[in-house]
Design brief:
about 10% strand, single chain, mainly alpha, about 170 residues, 2 domains
Length: about 170
């Protein structure tokens, strides 16, 4: 297997305030050290806080939701809901068992996207309308509840060997 060396970076995962600095190279080419980098659609950072990833998800899903609002504004609610479920919600849920947020502020940022979508689908932009009521009338679970269900399903699949989670032989030394 050949590596595309210009795309390779060094992302140190650490929890120390004053880490030891090392320089790494691949085939004689020094690797850049970065504090955050995307990997398989997940933005990793040096402390695995997921703050960068959640900010990225909120930004990307909000952009798609805004596009849906512009193009499907006059459409029926079921068309708007289908567009949200197909284009925005997968962005809010992708790989969530891995980065499941535990920080209340991060959860609120993510739920805010769904609240905006509920207002759009129901065409109710009044300040006095409670968005949790709109979400309940649409039959949508909260994102937090959905993440917990997905995480439980993933653990179930791992425990029952539906998902192979054993490392290849020789990777872990006794």
């Amino acid at each position: 297997m050949e590596f595309n060396i210009p795309k390779c970076v060094h992302l140190p995962v650490r929890n120390k305030t004053t880490p030891r600095l090392h320089s790494y190279s691949l085939c004689g080419v020094p690797l850049y050290t970065v504090s955050s980098h995307p990997y398989l659609g997940i933005k990793l950072d040096t402390k695995l806080t997921w703050a960068n990833h959640i900010t990225y998800i909120v930004s990307k899903s909000s952009t798609v939701l805004a596009m849906i609002k512009r193009t499907l504004g006059p459409c029926k609610p079921d068309v708007k809901e289908t567009a949200y479920n197909m284009l925005v919600r997968p962005k809010l849920e992708y790989a969530s068992p891995i980065w499941n947020p535990h920080n209340t502020t991060q959860i609120k940022h993510l739920e805010k996207v769904q609240h905006c979508a509920a207002r759009f689908v129901k065409n109710d932009h009044r300040r006095q309308t409670v968005t949790t009521y709109l979400i309940a009338t649409l039959g949508w679970p909260t994102l937090e509840r959905h993440w917990i269900i997905k995480q439980a399903m993933t653990f179930y699949n791992i425990l029952n060997n539906i998902i192979n989670s054993t490392p290849p032989p020789g990777l872990i030394k006794p």
